[in-house]
Specification:
Layout lengths: L7 H8 L3 E2 L4 E2 L6 E7 L2 E8 L7 H15 L5 E8 L14 E9 L6 H14 L4 E5 L7 H4 L8 E5 L2 E5 L1 E3 L2 E5 H4 L10 H13 L6 E7 L6 H9 L4 E6 L3 H15 L7 E11 L16 H8 L4 E7 L1 H9 L9 H22 L1
The chain binds adenosine-5'-triphosphate.
């Protein structure tokens, strides 16, 4: 490379031609390039993505390398450190100062797998390197403790900076709080409005969440007092709607969508997840049986112009893992990959919304 004298400005100039495909601006303008270091015949720098679950990570890395080779020198060795700093909504909620994004997971109909999707998305986001928590507000049947093998656990109350704080359960690196910890499942307490409001307020304000990139809220099916309390209590990043492809579930999912979209509530829909999209027997992994109809969720997303985050098959392993207390997304395999892809799409939508 003899004569070549490369400066940080030249490197920045080359990288300013690389676009962040979602945010539609270049990496330099977005402040995503850090710590440029020049060595003999090589350049090192860090790219700070908006989420560790970024589905475009590899493309952005290749585009950076390509820009330097094309615009600076083809033989320059390029060493890129890909990191991430999750972005947050502009006005973070003072009730939960360390929590960057709060995502409501809702469904119209019961039993469509909303808790299963919440648990597995949390696992997948955690696996990608994010700090994740779940607040299980589904008093109709708090299944999150079971899905995390935490049904016999109780959160402790500890004094932090002179204030009593609830310590969330930490299971597989995910922080959990559940209405189920307050009311044992076998003796369902008839929750009344003020009790729920109080419990939710406490779960947000008095829990020692510390730093979280994503806090997922598992809501009861349908639209209830809890939904209203939640949107009044906390500034949500957005909502995810879980549905199955059959007609009854879709019409209920539409009600869920409309609840968040109505003017007085105005919570962005981050996307729709189609659960039990098709059945795949373990012994015939390439066969797909569309038991509940095909593409219902996808079509609903198109109709209401909301992102389609992906589909989850009906497989025995998902139910077994849930019952065994460790979400399947914690393991490796095609089902975990499906959740990984949905989590990446969700993280991407959050980053896009936060940039607007
Ligand atoms: N894709 C799937 N494949 C196999 N089993 C699934 C799948 N999704 C959910 N299940 C199973 O279906 C049952 C109901 O799921 P889950 O509790 O997640 O539904 P829900 O919508 O949260 O229910 P609720 O109405 O109680 O809130 C569970 O036993 C779960 O393991």
């Amino acid at each position: 490379m003899g004569e070549l004298s490369v400066t940080k400005e030249i490197i920045l100039g080359a990288l300013s031609t690389v676009q962040e495909p979602d945010l539609k601006k270049d990496l330099v303008t977005l402040g995503m390039i850090k710590d440029i270091e020049l060595g003999v015949g090589e350049v090192r720098f860090t790219v700070v993505l908006t989420t560790p679950a970024c589905p475009l990570k590899e493309k952005i890395r290749q585009d950076c390398e390509g820009a330097i080779h094309n615009l600076v020198h083809p033989d320059l060795k390029v060493v890129i450190n890909m990191t991430a700093e999750v972005t947050s909504i502009q006005q973070q909620d003072p009730l939960i100062p360390g929590v960057k994004n709060v995502i409501a997971v809702a469904s119209g109909k019961g039993g469509v797998g909303k808790s299963t999707v919440t648990a597995n998305l949390a696992m997948a986001l955690k696996k990608a390197g994010a700090k994740v928590g779940i607040l299980d507000a589904d008093i109709s049947g708090p299944s999150i403790p079971v899905m995390f093998g935490a049904e016999d656990m109780q959160p402790l109350v500890q004094e932090v900076n002179g204030k009593n704080r609830i310590q969330p359960i930490n299971q597989y690196g995910i922080k959990l709080i559940s209405m189920g910890f307050l009311a044992p499942t076998e003796s369902p307490v008839p929750w009344r409005g003020p009790m729920m409001t109080q419990a939710l307020r406490q779960f947000f304000g008095d829990t020692n969440w510390e730093e979280l990139d994503y806090l997922l809220i598992d809501l009861p099916p349908g639209t209830s007092d809890i939904h209203l309390t939640l949107v009044q209590l906390i500034k949500l990043t957005g909502a995810v709607i879980v549905t199955t492809p059959q007609k009854v579930a879709l019409s209920d999912a539409t009600k869920g969508l409309q609840f968040f979209k109505q003017n007085s509530i105005n919570v962005p829909i981050l996307g729709l997840v189609e659960n039990m999209a098709y059945f795949t027997p373990a012994e015939l992994p390439d066969n797909k049986y569309y038991l509940f109809g095909k593409d219902g969720g996808k079509e609903l997303a198109t109709k209401y112009k909301v992102p389609f985050l992906g589909e989850v098959p009906l497989v025995q392993g998902i139910r077994e893992a849930g019952d065994a207390g460790k979400p399947i997304a914690a393991e490796e395999g095609p089902t975990a990959d499906a959740f990984g892809q949905i989590a990446a799409n969700l993280a991407q939508q959050i980053a896009i919304n936060n940039a607007q």
